[in-house]
Amino acid sequence: MLERTGAAGQKPLRVVVMVSGGGTNLQAIIDSVKDGTITNTKIVGVISNNKNAYALKRAEENGIPSMCVSPKEFETRDIFNEKLLEAVDSYEPDLVVLAGFLVVIPPEMIKKYENRMINIHPSLIPSFCGKGYYGLKVHEAALARGVKVVGATVHFVDEGTDTGPIILQKAVEVQQEDTPEVLQHRVMEQAEWKILPRAIDLIANGKVQVADHKTTILP
Ligand code: GRF
């Protein structure tokens, strides 16, 4: 468990954000640190598996160190896994945030960052999650099932896919005329960009406890 007292004057939480694409969640975190919605926090690095990710531009524009570690650059998956962990470790993070990171996290990294790595998933877990549910597929499945409420979840990362302790969830209503793209954007705007920064702020201020695979949010 990440021990933080939340006392004033403590060292800021060192956060590494891992991305693969557009980086709108990264942007929400950057903006929240800037406007004080997230306190006691410093984004110390951004890691992408994709050198063309727009998220890397966002990091650069905001003076945040970044690097790309792509599986394509290495002969085997094991070597990539090792390099990815080395890259994360090099920033000495207190918290790793997966913000649209589309690579399977190596088991060694999951173990090392137990209860110190969080993920944003664009559904209300345990609906529409697990293997194969990522990106637009999540929203296509929700519309195909005809659910009336969707949403997003921030959770700690464990060995399973989207199975770790849930930190925050937020619901979003489906509209009659929604397409997967429209729904995806509403879920981001109304849920993801709010609960991911909020979860980081709670962790940075020592307000999240984990026991028995569940979290408690302290007042
Ligand atoms: C988000 O929908 C996130 O929930 C999912 O991937 C998407 C990333 O979007 N895991 P962005 O790169 O933050 O814009």
Question: How would you sum up this structure in a few lines?
Answer:
The protein is α/β, with parallel strands linked by helices.
Structure overview:
- The chain has 219 residues and is α/β, with parallel strands linked by helices.
- It is 34% helix and 23% strand.
- A 7-stranded mixed β-sheet has the order 3-2-1-4-5-6-7, with helices on one face.
- Strand 2, helix 2 and strand 3 form a beta-alpha-beta unit.
- Helix 1 crosses helix 6 and helix 5 packs across helix 6.
- The longest helix is centred in the last third of the chain and has 25 residues.
- The protein is globular.
- The structure holds 5-O-phosphono-beta-D-ribofuranosylamine.
- 5-O-phosphono-beta-D-ribofuranosylamine binds next to helix 1, strand 5 and helix 6.
Strand fraction: 15-25%
Instruction: Report, as a whole number of angstroms, the end-to-end distance.
Output: 18 Å
Shape: globular
Q: SSE order in H/E notation?
A: EHEHEHEHEHEEHEE
Strand order of the largest sheet: 3-2-1-4-5-6-7
Class by SSE composition:
alpha/beta
Helix content: 25-40%
Largest sheet: 7 strands, mixed
Which cofactor or ligand species appear?
A: 5-O-phosphono-beta-D-ribofuranosylamine
* Average predicted confidence as pLDDT: 96
Oligomer: single chain
Count the helices. How many? 6
Descriptive keywords:
single chain, 219 residues, alpha/beta, 7-stranded mixed sheet, two-stranded antiparallel sheet, 6 helices, binds 5-O-phosphono-beta-D-ribofuranosylamine
